[in-house]
Amino acid sequence: QVQLVESGGGLVQPGGSLRLSCAASGSIFSIGMMGWYRQAPGKQRELVANITSRGNTNYADSVKGRFTISRDNAKNTVDLQMNSLKPEDTAVYYCNARVILITPRIVSDYWGQGTQVTVSS
Q: Who's near 112: CB < 8 A, 6+ residues apart?
């Protein structure tokens, strides 16, 4: 019913930048919280940043000052600008959205397929 499609991952050197994008489509009445999570090999999935429909943001301590999350409510998109990347940022990054469906009018969480970010020299 709802699809999240991510783009923008890749290989970057330490200190470099990447921008991740995620577009939601389908039977969407509205979207509440949107966010980015990441999972490194052998580790649990963790929150990177999220943003409410009003634009209030929250960041993991490890990315504060380096990453910026933004969204376009009209286009149902959320982006993550990642600057000053470090090797420890290497992970698969997942987009998440809390969606109210058109019908039935229920709230469900949806995930993207994940995009690999590798920070290495």
A: 4, 5, 6, 22, 94, 95, 96
**Per-residue pLDDT tens digits for 48-58:** 999 999 999 99
Mean pLDDT across the chain = 97
Compute the Cα dihedral for 107, 105, 33, 119 and give only its sign: positive
Say if residues 35 and 45 touch (Cβ distance below 8 Å): no
| All residues at 6 or more sequence positions from 38 whose CB lies less than 8 Å from its CB, including other chains | 45, 46, 48, 89, 91, 92, 93, 94, 117
Identify whether the C-beta of residue 37 lies closer than 8 Å to the C-beta of residue 45: yes
Instruction: Say if residue 55 is exposed, middle or buried (CB neighbours under 10 Å; 0-12, 13-18, 19+).
Output: exposed
| Inter-CA distances, 80 with 6, 42, 101, Å | 11, 23, 24
Residue with tokens 């000053």: 84
